[in-house]
Amino acid sequence: GLFVWHLKNTGIRQIPCQFVHLCRVANNRLITFQYFNFLKRMYVTQYNKDLSQRAKPKSDSVASPFRELQQFDQEKKVIHKIRPISPVHQPLPETSSGNMLREMKSAAETEDSVTPVRAESKDNRQWKEMKLQLGDLPGILARLSKIKLTALVVSTASAGFAMAPVPFDLTCFLLASLGTGLASCAANSINQFFEVPFDSNMNRTKNRPLVRGQISPLLAVCFAASCGVPGIALLTLGVNPLTGALGAFNIFLYTCCYTPMKRMSIANTWVGAVVGAIPPVMGWTAATGSLDAGALLLGGILYSWQFPHFNALSWSLREDYSRGGYCMMSVTHPGLCRRVALRHCLALIGLSTVAPVLDITTWTFPVISLPINLYISYLGFRFYRDADRSSSRKLFFCSLWHLPMLLLVMFTCKKSFLEKEDKGDLLGGNHGRAMEIRLP
Amino acid sequence: PPAHSRSDWIGPPDKHSNLRPVIFYVPPEESPLERRLREARQEAQACDQRFWARHNRAFCQEKEEFIYSRLKAKGLEMRDETGQKATLNAEEMADFYKDFLSKNFRKHMQYNRDWYKRNFTITFLMGQVALVRALRWLRWKKKNVGN
User: Fold this and answer.
1) In chain A, what percentage of residues exceed pLDDT 70?
2) Which of B7, B55, B109 lies closest to A130 in CB terms?
3) A200 vs B115: CB contact, 8 Å cut-off?
4) Could you state, in order of their start, the residue ranges of all structural domains in chain A?
5) Most exposed among A95, A238, A253, A368, judged by the fewest C-beta atoms under 10 Å?
6) pLDDT averaged over chain A?
7) What is d(CA A204, CA A201) in angstroms, rounded to the nearest whole number?
8) Given an 8 Å threshold on Cβ–Cβ distance, is A323 in contact with B85?
């Protein structure tokens, strides 16, 4: 699940040193580096977009594959050039982190100002014709399907596929990725279809296609159907029925359970975490055809990760949630919010330790991953104790790089299935390298 | 929107409701079905506008009152020496957010139900209209090809 993204120099934040270091250390991981950078850039871009719009007032965090990433920080004053007014087109940065990341409703909230400043970009002030421009359609559909979030979801599914102890089958891999991607597009589109007036009222989401009238609800539903049906069919027929069933279930869970529940009960967070946990399970079942302990462990890791990610993010969005009528822990049960985040950071340590027990990775994995798990737990503890904006932000940003890195380390520590068969260490001495050997 | 336009126009977000108003185009040869759709959309727009404008105004007002009462309890004025409006930090506001959310819970539940119903109805009507138009176009096409 490595995607190559062009590193665009958009003149935003500096890339933290650790990424550069990572890049140097493993140049075959360059792709992953770009992937990290992409993740970060995506978030930052959203930031910036948010800021420039703040001239106006992501998200989700993608802890859950199907959730959007929310934007965060509004303190920075960044000057951006005013984008030329194009009738419909808007730059892509929607906050969408793959399903892995929960949608984070980005709300550039200003805690300090009583009246939120809403400088609207020129785009927003004009009356626009509600006619679909075909040239803009790809961009509109990309935003409707939260394409970045979908991409992240697909990468978690790929991670699940890669971790499965079977020979790598490229066709299967591609089919599974495509199917998952289509399913994710469908789910995201339906989510947006359901939430138009609420999205209008929240800073992060107010520039979505349906909110802006760039596409009709009918078209959104048709698009969702035309992605979802082929996607699930592809998974069921081209991969295996179990994966298809999981995909369909996840779409249902996201659109019919999580989305309405957001406005009814704080339990939505747990449901959303499951939504986020399913794609890697799907990847695994696509490869192996069965739901083993390994699949559940990967799902468990992603499930636990969702909490620090989302809870930290939602901490800054309390005003928008409150006004919009969303029932989130950060608003109604702040203590619980922080406790749960911390609890799950610690759970990540536990889960990482279980991995070698289940023969998914070697014992180097818990050892190598301990530093990053401890670090996120430390930030989780700080968030728990301090309960302020800066600790929540730190935790959020840590979660952004923590997950890709954890999955990466997991992959490098993957226990080759050959090793397992020949206990006498044919491949001895090579702890960190995963070997994918294609059997004739 | 210009007078000659044959499509709907959508405007900037409303100051109070944050919703974007739509001006619907009424075609001269509007069918009953299309009229039903347009009226449903207009009604939905009015409902949503009413709800959110009122809701948001209430939010701002209650927020001001909350800030005022808290500041008073602390012995501070609404505006400090420099003339800036005094504000509370996030943790203090959290109580207000929690309170506001729970107070309006029932209202939101009712609105949610209505919104989902309206959304489905309108989308379904759109589907019907699109289908009828498509069939009409196909018939027209066949007639022309025949000629």
Assistant:
1) 66
2) B7
3) no
4) 134-268, 292-419
5) A238
6) 76
7) 9
8) no
- Token pair 């580096």 is found at A33
What are the residues facing A361 on neighbouring strands?
A414
| Whole-complex ipTM | 0.89
Residue of B nearest to A114 (CA): B87
Q: Cα separations (Å) of A183 from A38, A59, A296?
A: 22, 19, 20
Residue-wise pLDDT tens digits, A94-131: 444 444 444 443 343 333 343 444 444 566 678 888 88
Inter-chain CB proximity B5 and A325 less than 8 Å: no
Distance CA B9, CA A99 (A): 34
Say which amino acid occupies A51: L
Per-residue model confidence as pLDDT tens digits over B9-28? 999 998 899 999 999 988 88
Alpha helix ranges (H) inside A234-267: 241-252, 259-261
* Shortest distance, CA A323 to any CA of chain B (angstroms): 7
Domain ranges (residues) in chain B:
9-146
pLDDT at position A417: 67
| pLDDT tens string A380-425 | 999 999 888 899 999 999 999 999 999 999 999 888 766 555 444 4
Task: Select from A322, A388, A392 the residue whose CB has the most chain B CBs within 10 Å, as the one to mutate to test that interface.
Answer: A322
pLDDT digits (tens, 9 = 90+) for A210-225: 999 999 999 999 999 9
Fold classification of A134-268 is: Tetracycline Repressor; domain 2 (1.10.357)
Among B19, B20, B60, most A C-beta atoms within 10 A, so best to mutate, is B20
Task: Specify the pLDDT at position B29.
Answer: 86
Among B11, B63, B67, the residue with its CB nearest the CB of A127 is B11
Q: What residues of chain A lie within 8 A of the CB of B105, using their CB?
A: 325, 327
A196: Cβ contacts below 8 Å, ≥ 6 apart = A210, A211, A217, B119
* Cα angle A201, A202, A207; round to 5: 90
Residue pair A35/A155 in contact (Cβ under 8 Å)? The answer is: yes
Q: Does the beta-carbon distance from A389 to B11 stay under 8 Å? A: no
Contact A200 B13 (CB under 8 A): yes
Strands A102-103 and B22-23: unpaired
CA Rg, chain B, in Å? Answer: 24
Residue A149 bridge partners (DSSP): none
Q: Which residues of B touch A387 (CB under 8 A)?
A: 91
CATH 1.10.10 for domain A292-419, yes or no, is no
B87 to A113: CB separation less than 8 angstroms, yes or no: yes
For A89, A190, A272, the CA distances from A275, given in Å and listed in that order, are: 30, 15, 5
